[in-house]
Amino acid sequence: MRILKQVVLLLGIMGSGPALAQVEVEGMRAFDRPFLELVGAIEAPRGYDAITGYAPFRPERPITEMTIGEVLEWQNRIRTAGAEATAVGRFQFVRDTLEFLTRAYEVPHDTLLDRRTQDYLARVLLHRCGFYAPETPIGELGDCLAGTWAALPMLTGPNRGESRYKGRANNHARTSPEVVTAVLSVRFAPDALTVAARGASDIGRGVSDLLAPRERVGLGAVISEASFRR
Question: Does residue 51 sit in helix, strand or coil?
Fold first, then answer.
């Protein structure tokens, strides 16, 4: 029942969570907000201004009030000071990843690393793993994402259920393969209620009693697939 509750909460059915964002791919719409909420909840529960616990000193301002260039400079400083990790933000961007993404996808370094920018960069990472391609196998997709975020478990192989980075900087999986599979497998569902129902069904649970009194959740903004192209 705990897995079911986690899935339903992530899908925004219970409580007043954010609207589901969509990315339209060849006439199909991928709902990515449930997965982004899952990653954010297990990687950085403190939110968009979170910084690595290994930092020997804090930045001068909250991360969301700093430009990408300022964040990169701060990450350089803490790495030079001996920090074991440089992760920042809701999606825990390490210095090398942040540098690569912003240069490869031409995001100016004078852009604020605010919520909108962090969400965009996280969606780029989803895109690179094939999240927005309906034909991507769930196991392959999940394992790629586990290589991106250390708190996600591997979905296949002998290390299923474990972080790909287990043993490095205290990394470990913070959710189950069943939860990840449930959320990924319904990313092309047409609305939030269907997402929740199918997600729970995929892990062998029924949610009709939970869904009955709930209202439909707004669909959110549509983001063009072209946004991810260089």
Answer: strand
Q: Which residues pair with 112 in a beta bridge?
A: 67
The whole-angstrom separation of Cα 86 and Cα 95 is 6
Any idea where the domains of the chain sit in the sequence?
1-32+131-225, 47-114
Q: What is the pLDDT along the chain (230 residues), one digit of tens a residue?
A: 444 344 434 434 333 334 445 555 444 567 899 999 999 999 999 999 999 988 999 999 999 999 999 999 999 999 999 998 999 999 999 999 999 999 999 999 999 999 999 999 999 999 999 999 999 999 999 999 999 999 999 999 999 999 999 888 788 899 999 999 999 998 887 654 455 555 444 433 332 232 222 222 222 223 333 333 33
